[in-house]
Amino acid sequence: MTEPAYPPRTWEATPETGRAGLPSIGAVDPAARARLTAGASGWATLAEPRLGLEPVTLVDGPLGLVSPTFDERDPSLLLPSGIALGATWDPDVVRTVAAAEASEARRKGFDAVYGPNLNLARTGLSGRTFEMLSEDPLLAGLLGAAFVQGMQGQGVASVPKHLVANDTETERQRMSSEVDDTALREVYLRPFELAVQAGAWALMAAYNRLNGVPCAANADLLDIVKAEWGFDGLVLSDYFALHETPGPALAGCDLEMPGPAIHFGHRLAEAVERGEVPQERVDDAVTRLLRLARRVGRLDGGAGRAVVRTEEYVPAERAHEILVRAASASFVLVRNEDSLLPLAPHGLTRLAVIGPNADRPCYQGATFGRVRPADDAATPLEAIRARFGPTCEIVHERGVDTTPAVSLGALPVTTPDGEPGVLLEHFRGGTRVLAETRGDSSFIWFGQVPDVGPTTEPGRLRLTAVLTPDEDGPWTIGVGGSGDTVLTVEGRRLAHRPAPAPGDLMGQIARAETVTGTVDLRGGKPVTVVAEMTTEGGRVQALTVSAAPPRTPDALERAVRTAEEADTVVLVVGDELRSSRESRDLEDSSLPAEQRELIRRVACANPRTVVVVNAGRPVDAPWADDVAAVLQTWFAGQGYGEALARVLAGDDEPGGRMPVTVPRTDADRSTHGEALDVNLTRNYTPAEPTGYRHLLGIGTSARFAFGAGQGYTTWRYAHATLIRTEGGSGSLAVRLRVANTGERTGRDVVQVYVRAPGETDARLAGFTGVALAAGESAEVRVRLDSRTWLRWDTESAGWRTPVGVYQVLIGRSAEDIEHTLTRIVPAPR
Question: Dihedral sign, CA of 615, 617, 619, 625?
């Protein structure tokens, strides 16, 4: 026998008490059991009739259900992004949104959803910040737990990701996050721990390495999850994250995705035969898969399925309104001089709606899991016209001279036969095997091209579109894909993109990078655009064709004149689809230069300017003091436009609070300048603590503090005390009286922070929302559980309660503290 590549670890067969209701895995041979440790495809596990096991269907879903075939003809609800849900500071809202997504998953026959993303927005520059709930582990964890509960309450598995410290996208497949035990336990693992405590049925391991070891093969990490936390669910790999067999198997990774198997499956069976992996480890993995299948109703015809909370089921006709309400609850009003908002719709005669995101808002970042919205979402401009138009003239200017590139399907295009859409043809061996009319020009095929065959087979794609431009001038057309791609317009070669180099396959697809060419077109005159891609075959294939109209040179001056002539300006700025990208990080947190200049000029022209920031990340805002109001609106899902109009009009309150910190400059962040070293490691320790805790520790104020936000009323806190509650000696609560001192009904978020002995910063320890009518008051309690007082002790490798005086800070943000209480922990006698 060859020597095992890894020292054998001790694995015990799963106790019978942990296998209640599951079939005996001894009914199938060891090789068949090993086959179950890898997916059957990109979105399903294998069936095993002898065990009563049906395929479990898994789909990506932090922003909504991603079509397994990535087909624009298979739309889904588009949810508020993770950072928007984080901004609600409201577990009930998050739970309801998750229930709406899970209800749709049930209608579509999906069993598990990859989400929420519980990584932390520690730098604010990650390409996937928009997916993350917060920079704070407690806020992210409590809201993530609510998401898990809402999803699994409908019998659909929630799969929190990406375990752990996948807080940067740069070189994510190869980089190592170097995290000390204290930060790992207190900060980065905390959201996942809370999700497991909420009952998550599965977890996804991250691409990156943790302290030099790939997360999916990190035995220390997975021991914490399975042994310490008692997690009885399934641990699966991120897609194509495994690079060998024994390490991940021995560490405790249970399922390789996607399928068919590369490193698990038959190779895992061979590793067992060689003595590199014990059979008990495979049996444990299969048991966990069977347990997941039982919970989602894919075992023995649904026997033993988890109890579904039918009262929380969201019918399709109710879902959109829920998403609109969630969007309103996520908007954060961080500045409102002279109470400019809400706008009185009957007090305006001319309202200017300006900015590149007014008519082309951004709903999501460029990720592998892009969602095709189920309905045509109203843009901010359309929704504002509908709400204010009957009593007020609405005028619009984009204000910038560029328009983001869009799919050809969003432009006036037909097939060569005149049918609306584009013609997509698939060729194998020179023979056309499929021709179809599609309404999009951005495609992904995972493992299988429907009605064509496996993506691993060589072939050729051809997209043909007859584009009728609506304006004269130089149009920019781009093309990219997973193979060698050539773009022609009227037969003239415009651009060529070679097949991308091997590497982060999922990231390359998510970024949908293109090469572009410019061609002069005449408005109203059709031209034929052809993109041809030759591929040698691969696990995934993709093709993207996009186009952008000519620049508008006088856009800024037109916007300034419009602002001067208006009573009030709503200026909508922010990101475009590719501003935030999977597998690529941002260089800084500022808006594009042309948008910053637009804000400056418009604010000078009209002091009654409301800046609406449509971005999935904390945005540098040196211009904030120059405008009357600033409203952070994130990527708020398909209800974005309607919610914005409601909030501007005062029909709804901007209910959100900042889930991230916006410092006065990027240099104020402890992570500023942090980068990978020559060994592709990122050392977290010098920057800890990050975010608001760093600013509190050095005594520097933020531009928009963590937890900050205004509604449309005012509040008073009084009579704050610490009281004991059930749940052990360390379980306390803050009790106080909260009064709505304004003239409107509103909701506030009472926040409690704790500073332990010897600490210069403070950390969020609890929060609760309180909704009161004008003039009403109520007693409010914020529970502080026993973990509030614990800190990780590296010497004992365990939790301890530091002795001394704790400060308990009660306020409306990390910097707006109204009451300070103390708790003394005496030294043991």
Answer: positive
Residue whose entry in the numeric block shows the structure tokens 């019918």: 315
- Angle at the Cα of 664 from the Cα atoms of 662 and 665, rounded to 5 degrees: 100
What are the beta bridge partners of residue 434? Answer: 426
| Radius of gyration of the CA atoms of the chain, in A | 27
b/e map 235-250, b = 16+ CB within 10 Å: bbbbbbbbeebbbbbb
Query: Quick one: angle between helices 640-649 and 380-388, nearest 10?
Result: 40
Residue of 616, 589, 708 whose CA lies nearest to 658: 708
Strand order in the sheet with 176-178: 213-214, 209-210, 176-178, 681-683
The amino acid sitting at 206 is A
Tell me which amino acid residue 257 is.
M
d(CA 560, CA 545): 34
How many residues in the chain? 829
pLDDT tens digit sequence for 612-625: 999 999 999 999 99
∠ at Cα 89 (84, 91), nearest 5°?
A: 100
Q: What is the DSSP string of 450-469?
A: TTTEETTS-EEEEEEEEE--
The residue to which tokens 């993995």 are assigned: 285
Distance CA 386, CA 381 (A): 9
What integer best gives the mean pLDDT of the chain? 93
- The DSSP H or E segment spanning 431 is strand 431-438
Max intra-chain CA distance, the chain: 89
Which residues, in sequence order, are CB contacts of 597 under 8 Å at separation 6+? 556
Task: Decide if pLDDT at 5 tops 60.
Answer: no
Q: What pLDDT was estimated at residue 303?
A: 85
Cα separation, 272 vs 249, in Å, equals: 10
Contact in structure between 147 and 99 (CB atoms under 8 Å)? no
Q: 54 and 298 in contact (C-beta within 8 Å)?
A: yes
Burial of 146 (0-12, 13-18, 19+ CB in 10 A): buried
Confirm whether pTM is higher than 0.90. Answer: yes
DSSP symbol at 50: G
Indicate the helix (H) or strand (E) that contains 798. strand 798-800
Question: Tens of pLDDT along 517-573?
Answer: 999 999 999 999 999 999 998 888 889 999 999 999 999 999 999 999 999 999 999
Quote the tokens at residue 377. Answer: 């979402």
- How far apart are the C-alpha atoms of 819 and 735, rounded to whole Å? 11
**Structure token pair of residue 583:** 């597998």
| Alpha-helix residue ranges (DSSP H) falling in 518-588 | 555-564
Do the Cβ atoms of 68 and 472 come closer than 8 Å?
no
State which amino acid sits at residue 317: E
The DSSP annotation for 710-771 comes to B-SS-EEEEEEEEEE-SSSTT-EEEEEEEEE-SSS-EEEEEEEEEE-TT-SS-EEEEEEEEE
Whose structure tokens read 């309180």?
770
> How many beta carbons lie within 10 A of that of residue 401, not counting itself?
14
Q: What is the pLDDT of residues 641-671, one digit of tens each?
A: 999 999 999 999 999 999 999 999 999 999 9
Contact criterion met (CB below 8 Å) for 234 and 284 = no
Burial of 609 (0-12, 13-18, 19+ CB in 10 A): buried
CB 590 within 8 A of CB 436: no
pLDDT at residue number 202: 98
User: How many CB atoms are closer than 10 A to CB 266?
Assistant: 14
